[in-house]
Amino acid sequence: MSGGPGRLSRTVGLTCRSWRSSTRGDLGLEMPLEQVPRAQKEITRRARVAKRPVILATQVLESMTKEARPTRAEVSDAANAVDDGVDAIMLAGETAVGAFPVRAVQTLDAVIRDAEASPTARMARSRRELSHNHVDAICDAAVMLAEHADAAAIVAVTHSGGTARRLAAQRPRVPILGATNSSETARRLTLLWGVTAVLADLGPPHELPGRLIGRQLLEGGHVHAGATVVLVHTDADLSAQSANYLKIHRL
Known about the structure:
The protein is built from eleven helices and seven strands. The chain is elongated, with a radius of gyration of 20 Å. The chain is an alpha/beta fold. The protein has a five-stranded mixed β-sheet with strand order 5-4-3-6-7, sandwiched between helices. Strands 1-2 form a two-stranded parallel sheet. It has three domains: about 1-50, no CATH class; about 55-125, no CATH class; about 135-250, 3-Layer(aba) Sandwich (Pyruvate Kinase, Chain: A, domain 1), CATH 3.40.1380. It starts with a helix and ends with a strand.
């Protein structure tokens, strides 16, 4: 198939409007090989702005299907993806049919942890490119509040997952707990960077569920007694009945 700027733009646009993972193998069929790295970076950038999870897949540590150590190029590729801001890196053949499945996971885990601790990765967490409205502003404030207050976690009270997605897009240094009463939403939350899904009773609508959720977090071992958390819930509605709130809560 012929490729060019138009094809690249259309492919990136379609991918970023979807929750599905687009592997680099598929991209390689849609455009010339030399355009795949640029498409990967642009998909990641646009998806972060749109608060869509990004999963990097296809030949991440391909050499480890036969060898005990990856190539330097593979390690650099995975680390660069972390710097770009992907939510997850997925192994396939390396663990499905590879000779060293456990070592492949351990290797990728080490690469990701080291990359996330680097100054370059922290720069990728910049919020400058993220679109902003009142909902984003609340999440932005929640992240800054949690980091300055040395909170144990940010608790995103969410029915659809939107609040947790906005928080994850900012790459906070504080863990995010996505408290939801929907098992479907909980499954989706597991795709997001830094988010742990917690199935919880959220109580009646439009009520601040601090004590109720706090008790469930303690019982589930997600946080310890005496810990400080930041509770946040966002609502696109700005009427008097809206449920936007941001609160520091000590358990």
